Every structure is written in C-alpha cells, then in structure tokens.
Amino acid sequence: MDRVRNVTGKTKRLPRYVREQQMLDAAVQMFARRGYHAASMDEVAELAGVSKPMVYLYLGSKEELFLACIRREAGRLLDAFAGQVNQADAPDQQLWHALRAFFVLVAENRDSWRVLHQQAPAHGEPFAGEVAAMRTAIIAFAADLIDQNIRSRGVSEATEHDVSALAHALVGAGESLADWATEHPDEDPATTARRLMNFAWMGLDNLLHGSIWRP
Amino acid sequence: MDRVRNVTGKTKRLPRYVREQQMLDAAVQMFARRGYHAASMDEVAELAGVSKPMVYLYLGSKEELFLACIRREAGRLLDAFAGQVNQADAPDQQLWHALRAFFVLVAENRDSWRVLHQQAPAHGEPFAGEVAAMRTAIIAFAADLIDQNIRSRGVSEATEHDVSALAHALVGAGESLADWATEHPDEDPATTARRLMNFAWMGLDNLLHGSIWRP
DNA sequence: GTCCCTTCTTACTTACCAGTAAGATTACTG
DNA sequence: CAGTAATCTTACTGGTAAGTAAGAAGGGAC
C-alpha cells in the first residue's frame, strides 16, 4: 500500500479513523498470510503506509491490534448473518439466506476468514475466547432453526443436548465447505450454500421423519 | 515428568528411543496447551525430564520437533482409521467403524487432536502442508464411501466435484463434533459417532433418493 | 578394572522484534 | 498568520527464547 503523496512529494496526512482502518486492513492481511507471530509490527506498519509508532499510538499493542482485527471481522460476519435473516421466514429459508450470505462474505474476504477460523483460535486467550463467543452465537442460531423445525412438526424426543450436537455438526460442515470454496474460487457462493443445504437439511429432514440410521 | 532416579539419587539414563518418545509426549502437551510459539524448548525439555541440549541433539530444532509431533500424531490417526475399515463391509458400516475409531482416539488424546486440528494449520509451512496431506487422505476415504454408495444405487449425476464437496462437509462436521465432544467428556464416543452418522448419512440417503432441497 | 561410546548438563551467545523516547512537520482554528 | 493540536518519523532499548560450545559422568564390553 503506497502512501498517498501530495504535489510537493510530501506524505499526505490522513484523519485517525481512516488510518486505523488502513492499519486493520494491513494487519488482517499480514496475520492471515504469515500468522500472528510471524507477522511483525514493522511489516504491518509498512503495508499500512505508516511508521510503527503510529500503529502503537492508535491501536496500542500487538495483542490489541490482533483483538481489534478479530472484533471487526467477527462483527462483519455476524452482521452479514443478521442482515439476511427474517424471523417470519420458514426455518429452511432462514438457513438458506444465512448460508448464502456467509459464503459470499468468505469468498470476498478470504483473509478475514483465515484470521477468524485459522489464526485466532490457535493463539490462546483472549483471542480464542473472542472467536468462540462469535461461533457460539452462530451455533445458537443454527440450533434455534433446528429446534423450530422440530417443534413445528411435533415429532421429537430430541433434547437440547442432541440439538446442540446437530448444530455443531452443521456449523462445522459450513466451515469446512468455506475452506473448500476458497480453493474453488470459480464456484458461485450460492451454489456452495445449496450444497450445504442439501447435505444438512435433507439429513435433518430424514431424521425428523423418524428415519434413524442404526449400526 | 519427574526424572527417574536410581538408588544413589543420580539421574537414570535411558536409551535414545525412549527419550525421544518422552520428548514428543512432552512437546505435544506443551504445543497443545500453550501453542507453538508460547511453548519454549526449555519447558518442553523440563517436562520431558531432560535438559534442552538433549532435545536439540535428538530432534534437531524447534521446527523439526513440531514436525515430528505432527507426523507421529497424524500417523496414529490414519492408522486408527485404517485399522477399523474392512473393504468388504457396506459403505455405511465402513463409515460407522471409522467414525467410532476417530472419536475414541480424540477422546483419549485431546492434546494430539489440538495439535493436529488447531495448532499445525495455523503456523504455515511445512506444518500446514503435513496436516493438509493427512486431511486429504481422510477426505478421499470419505469421498470414496459416498461414491460407492452412489454407484451401488445407480442413481446419480453427481460429478467428482460434487462428491468432493460432500466429503469436505462430512469431514468438517466430524471435526466440529470432535471439538464439541471434548467439551462433553461424559459422552460415549460411539454415541458421538452415531450422531454424525444420523446427521450425515441420513442426509446423503435423502439426496441419493433424488430428494433435493430447493431454494 | 579400564576403555570408550552414549547419555546428559551447565553456562553461554545471539538474533529478533515488541515497544518507546524525543522531537519534526502539517494543517486546522481563531 | 500565529498558536496549537493533531499526524507522523527516526533511532533507539530491552527482554526473551532459540540454539550451541565444552565437557562431565554413567555403564556396557572385554
């Protein structure tokens, strides 16, 4: 990221908020590509077009910088979910819209996804906890959809525990497909979402009709 | 890990192979609990009941030590799969046996699982590549089972691409459930395996009978 | 008992990088 | 056009942990 220069060749000054976002952009990229430890503050600063003390002035420390990245990207992901979900829709429609939004977001922000999914959980507290909280919210959303579906059919002897396990499996399948999708950039995110709907929802459908797999 | 002492109070010497395994045990534990970077070679050595230069003498460097951990644990995981699979069984039985072995292994070796699933992929090459290779083998196994099932029913227009996506989703669901299971140590691994069989196989069953989810 | 190979330790060097002190420069404000 | 409140830099310090040099000591072979 070359630094903007004015006519006299001197470096242009930018307001704090703009610089902070540039720093976060640079940090997300570095953390995603090199990993938390291998990414040096000097490199982040250089990529942001700024000197190192500026990063410390605005973001505090390497830990706080990483946390700020995680919070920003986690917020975006949750917003993408929330923005697509309409409580009035049927459960499968809610899941469909949420998944589509998710795969679109991941396709457009691979580095963010790597930071959230691969880097943050591996580097202990407080990073892992922050991502775990986000993931818990997503799993709760999935569990709620499954639960709605169960109740609407009156089928079930499923406990909260059972539903939680299913939600974890569903979210894990989504995460894995997100990784798979980054290796197939040609695929439309909506197609990926359809794949997961079929894999997961059809399985649930079978389950909820009392069709159980036995050893 | 206190060092073994003989009657005179002097430290007991052990043959190289035994020490190496102790070092790897200690390293897996440290890497899993503290993370790759936060785990220091001094701590690993102390936990193994040995001084740091011994670790360097036998295992080479921190990178090689981590790689050795990954290779050993990945090998065990693949062996656990291979040992349970009988080609003569029906596809669902093969998957069932493999999943049960997998969840048993994870329940008994949480640290190994954390190293393979959480630490190794986050710290770049050559670690990520080593785990990716193992994961590719597992996904190929899953894809093969799905494919067998498809062919045996003669149902399908599924491409290799489609099958690969399903296999990725299935494996991701398994990984996520493995994490979930470590938070529920009371649950029998076989029960966890049954959960996944129901979630995944019932979904596939529906798919293969031509029952497709549509937006 | 004594030779000698393997196991094992203490005590050090060195490189890297997070974090900072001190001050220069720009541009807004009255 | 001063005064001043931001933005921004160069040049440094210090702590931490990877990696190593040099040699001590157990224990099997004969």
Features of the shown structure:
transcription (chains A, B); DesT_TetR_C (chains A, B); 2 domains; 9 helices; DNA-binding (chains A, B); DNA-binding; 215 residues; Tetracycline Repressor, domain 2; mainly alpha; TetR/AcrR family transcriptional regulator (chains A, B); Arc Repressor Mutant, subunit A; homodimer; HTH-type_TetR-like_transc_reg (chains A, B)
Characterize the structure shown.
Two copies of one chain form a homodimer. Chain A folds into two domains: 1-60, Homeodomain-like (Arc Repressor Mutant, subunit A, Orthogonal Bundle); 70-208, Orthogonal Bundle (Tetracycline Repressor, domain 2), CATH 1.10.357.10. Helix content of chain A is 73%, strand content 0%. Chain A has nine helices and no strands. The radius of gyration of chain A is 21 Å and the shape is elongated. Chain B binds a DNA duplex (30 and 30 nucleotides) through residues 10-16, 19, 40-42, 50-54, 56-57, 61-62.
